[in-house]
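Hello, quick one for you while I still have it in my head. A protein chain has come my way and I'm curious about its shape. Can you walk me through what the tokens say about the fold? No rush at all, and the record is pasted right below.
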Amino acid sequence: MILYHKGVSDQALFVFLKNKRIKWVGNQNLKIYGKLNCKTGKRMKRENRIFFTTEIEATELGYRPCGHCMRVGYKRWKNGLV
């Protein structure tokens, strides 16, 4: 399930988070995804934020791992192993 932050109310988003239906957050402009608790992800603008249920969804859409909260995945991506 892919969920755009600008298209959902705060109450609905809270329910998705509480039920663990979304586990990853991404930046639509930069094509980066990471963990929900990442400091970098928390600073992004609401209109750029997108949520994913799985890492596979994010990578299939061309997003790369965050260099801050997902160092191992980012290094793999940077070295071309993904």
